[in-house]
Design a protein that fits this description.
about 140 residues; mainly alpha; two-stranded parallel ribbon
């Protein structure tokens, strides 16, 4: 989805697309060394923006990035020139019924329910997320296993 969008935006904007810790091509520290919370991911992105001396920006938030982008906007609204939200829930009701079962797992992360979600991270599942709906041969293999 973003492979086509980013070059179009880059015609008029300086595009920054930080890779969240544990996502994409970034390192995935162990849960013992990094607490995977939206709060910690927000701190990381805020540090990224500070290191690049980005004072104002438009936000394009999507999926798991939405809670991070909205936290940035709430902390320093004067920096945000606009927000485009694409599939980014900011309310619990928007998650839908499938997340109710996952919330049970989050509250009690035992090995049995964890095994049910392993297929979500299987190479074929991830590959399908990148390739479904795209013309064969048009998506580079660098973004999926």
């Amino acid at each position: 989805m973003f492979r086509s969008l980013m070059p179009l935006l880059a015609r008029d904007f300086h595009v920054l697309a930080p890779d969240l810790i544990g996502f994409g091509n970034s390192a995935a520290p162990s849960r013992e060394s990094f607490e995977y919370t939206f709060e910690n991911l927000t701190k990381n992105v805020a540090g990224f923006l500070a290191a690049l001396k980005v004072d104002q920006y438009f936000l394009h938030v999507f999926d798991y990035g939405a809670p991070i982008g909205f936290r940035l906007a709430m902390r320093q609204p004067e920096r945000v020139l606009g927000i485009v939200s694409q599939n980014g829930n900011i309310y619990q009701e928007g998650l839908g019924p499938k997340w109710a079962e996952r919330a049970k797992y989050w509250a009690n992360p035992t090995p049995e329910p964890r095994a049910q979600y392993e297929s979500a991270f299987a190479p074929e599942t991830i590959k399908g997320q990148y390739l479904t709906g795209e013309k064969p041969g048009t998506v580079g293999p660098d973004g999926f296993p």
